[in-house]
Amino acid sequence: MDYLRAFIIGGGICIVGQILIDKTALTPARILVIFVTAGVVLQGLGLYQYLIDFGKAGASVPLPGFGYSLAKGAITEVDKVGLLGAFTGGIKATSAGIAAAVFFGYLMAVIFNPKSKE
């Protein structure tokens, strides 16, 4: 059942992204920013946690999940150290994921021969 719920939530997020690509003039970069910002805002309002509880990886892996992690880290760090935590908490909460993305992206570039589109 967890797989089905993750598929529904993650697929729903992807459907929204595809609709934005197809029906608007928004660039993929702007859609990325909208998704991350939506995750931050929804977590700030306390709503994204419900999606995480229901959809688990389906809600935490896509881009709004990254915004959720940034906001959750910042909120946690503000509670611990004060206002300075608003600047450091998000980075601390997401540093492992960012480091893994950079490492594996570099590894794939070394293993495979990237080619430009013509």
Automatic annotation (TrEMBL):
Keywords: Membrane, Transmembrane, Transmembrane helix. The keyword Transcription regulation does not apply. InterPro entries: Spore_V_AE, SpoVA. Pfam families: SpoVAC_SpoVAEB (PF03862). The keyword Disulfide bond does not apply. The chain crosses the membrane at residues 6-25, 32-52, 93-112. This is Stage V sporulation protein SpoAE. The lineage of its organism: Bacteria, Bacillati, Bacillota, Clostridia, Eubacteriales.
